[in-house]
Every structure is written in structure tokens, then in C-alpha cells.
TrEMBL record:
UniProt protein name: UDP-3-O-acylglucosamine N-acyltransferase
One of the GO BP terms on file: lipid A biosynthetic process
Span of domain UDP-3-O-[3-hydroxymyristoyl] glucosamine N-acyltransferase non-repeat region: 19-86
Catalysis performed (reactions): a UDP-3-O-[(3R)-3-hydroxyacyl]-alpha-D-glucosamine + a (3R)-hydroxyacyl-[ACP] = a UDP-2-N,3-O-bis[(3R)-3-hydroxyacyl]-alpha-D-glucosamine + holo-[ACP] + H(+)
Record: active site: 230
Length: 316
């Protein structure tokens, strides 16, 4: 899309030399052919280092735009980004893509649907009513049980097991809200990548990234009924027990264990080898490794046990 057209869609003034824009991305990840946005002054330090062709920004921050980067000034950058995201969203399916490729030795149920552009590795088992979206890649020796849905552009590694009714690559829960309280969908134009030797239980949902990738690293085990939000990163050999959940952009280090119904707030980083007991509520990043936590507000498990004893004594 031409940069002048981008400016027109969001109602921004642009009088410079126009050129082709290939997509939207974050301040840190945007390339010289992409548009980014700034909706909060705490990201001022990142503006100077962006490689983006143009930045959607409000008037108060315009002076921070580096030389050679176009400023697209609007009243609400976050809302404008949401409006623009639709225009860079790929088609759900694409008949122009080549027929799906099925690797040697793979068994695909005639009741499964593999979209154009998808690739299935060797010795896979794809059971009834599975849907594999366009441009999705499934590695070797992977088993996908009935009614699993994998949206377009996702990747699943070798030796994985995906149990029934799980959804991989559905849209993250993202929207902008204006001053009138109206909501505008942010199209999730990233993907999900699952590395090798990952097992995912039934009826679990893993949301695709807004930009970039929601990443599940090798050896991880995810139980039934787990929610993984957009842009999350789950480290190697983590364990997530049933009904646990991660809000968007959370990063778990290696071998983190999330007990049943435990959950994190968004944009947190959890150090490796930490364990969270059932119903733990994590609202801040955890920088120390090798500890066990419980409760809400969150505290170390030994302290939580002592607290329960004192509460029980008060009730006698």
C-alpha cells in the first residue's frame, strides 16, 4: 500500500515523497518498509531507534521522530493503528496458493481439510474434522486429533501431539476504544510457532500475535482448557496445568510450572524454574529463579502456608 494511501485511511496529513508500505509492526521490530505507532509517552526512548518508514503519532510527540522517518499525526494513534490493521490483514484462505503438500507416510483423514499453501511433514496423523489453514507448516511425526483448528501461517514442529478441539492461531483479544466508548478490532497479523516435542491438551486456545509470533518452545506440556494470549512466549519444558492462563505478551522462562487456575497479568517476565501453585495470581514480573509461589496477592509458598495457619486460628 502506498504511504499516501495509508495517511488517507487514518486521516493524517502527509506531504512527503511517497513509497510502498508492506505492513505494520512494533517500534523495535519495524523495517524500513513498515509503519509503526506510538500511543504512550513511555516509549519515547524507542522512537529514536526505530527503523520504520513512518510512525503514527500524536502532536505532542511529533518532535521525537528521527530524521528520515515520516510522522503521521493523528488524535488517537492506537485507534488509527486498529483501523489500519484491517488493510494489512491477509485473506483467510487463498485459492491462488498451490495445493497442500502431504509428506511421505502421513495419514490424513478424508474428513480433514488442509487449505492451499499448507505443508504436512512425514509420518503425521491428521484425524477427522481437523482444519489446517493456509501457509501453515506441520513438522514430521506429529499427531493432530479430531476437531483441532490451526489458523493460517502457523508452524507446528516435529513430534508434537495436539489433542481434540484445541485451537491454535485464533485472534488475540485486541481492540482500541475511542472517547465514545466504541471498540475497533485490531487485526492480529502475526502467527503462532510451536517447536518440537510439544504436547497440547484438548480445548486449549493459543492466540496468534498482533505482530510477530506467539511462541511455544520445545518440550513444553500444556494441559486441557488452557488459555495462552497473543504474543506470549513459553520457554523450554514448561508445564501449564488445566485452566491456567497467560495474558498477552507474557514470557515464561524455561521449566516454569503453572498450577491449575493460576494466571498472569500481561507484559510480565517470569524467571526460569519457578513454580506457581494452584490459583496463584501473578501481577508483577518474577526476576528470581527456583522458587515456589502461592496465593493472591502472590507470595512465597512457605509464607502463604503460615498465613493460612494464622487465619485458621483466628476463626476458632
Amino acid at each position: 500500500m502506498d504511504l499516501t494511501e495509508v495517511a488517507s485511511i487514518i486521516g493524517a496529513e502527509f506531504n512527503g515523497i511517497s513509497f510502498e508500505i508492506t505492513g505494520l509492526n512494533t517500534l523495535k521490530e519495524a523495517s524500513s518498509n513498515e509503519v509503526t505507532f506510538v500511543s504512550n509517552s513511555k516509549y519515547i526512548k524507542d522512537i529514536q531507534n526505530t527503523k520504520a518508514a513512518a510512525v503514527i503519532i500524536d502532536k505532542s510527540l511529533k518532535s521525537h521522530i528521527p530524521q528520515g522517518c515520516a510522522a503521521l499525526v493523528v488524535d488517537s494513534p492506537y485507534w488509527s493503528m486498529a483501523v489500519l490493521s484491517k488493510y494489512f490483514s491477509p485473506p483467510i484462505e487463498d485459492d491462488q496458493l498451490p495445493y497442500a503438500e502431504i509428506g511421505e507416510g502421513s495419514r490424513v483423514s478424508p474428513k480433514a481439510e488442509i487449505a492451499n499453501g499448507a505443508k504436512i511433514g512425514k509420518n503425521c496423523t491428521i484425524l477427522a474434522h481437523v482444519y489446517i489453514g493456509a501457509q501453515t507448516v506441520v513438522g514430521d511425526n506429529t499427531i493432530i486429533y479430531p476437531n483441532v483448528t490451526v489458523y493460517r501461517d502457523c508452524t507446528i514442529g516435529n513430534d508434537c501431539i495436539i489433542h481434540a478441539n484445541t485451537t491454535i492461531g485464533s485472534d488475540g483479544f485486541g481492540f482500541a476504544t475511542n472517547k465514545l466508548g466504541e471498540h475497533k478490532k485490531i487485526y492480529q497479523n502475526g502467527n503462532v510457532a510451536i517447536e518440537e516435542d510439544v504436547e497440547i491438551g484438548s480445548s486449549t486456545t493459543i492466540d496468534r500475535a498482533v505482530f510477530g509470533t506467539t511462541l511455544i518452545k520445545k518440550g513444553t506440556r500444556i494441559d486441557n482448557l488452557v488459555q495462552v494470549g497473543h504474543n506470549c512466549e513459553i520457554g523450554e519444558y514448561c508445564v501449564m496445568v488445566s485452566q491456567s492462563g497467560l495474558a498477552g505478551s507474557t514470557k515464561l522462562g524455561r521449566n516454569v510450572v503453572m498450577g491449575g487456575q493460576s494466571a498472569t497479568a500481561g507484559h510480565l517476565e517470569i524467571a526460569p524454574f519457578n513454580t506457581f501453585a494452584a490459583r496463584s495470581g501473578i501481577t508483577k514480573s518474577i526476576k528470581e529463579s527456583g522458587k515456589t509461589f502461592s496465593g493472591f496477592p502472590l507470595m512465597e509458598h512457605k509464607m502463604w502456608l503460615r498465613l493460612q495457619v494464622k487465619i485458621a486460628r483466628l476463626l476458632k
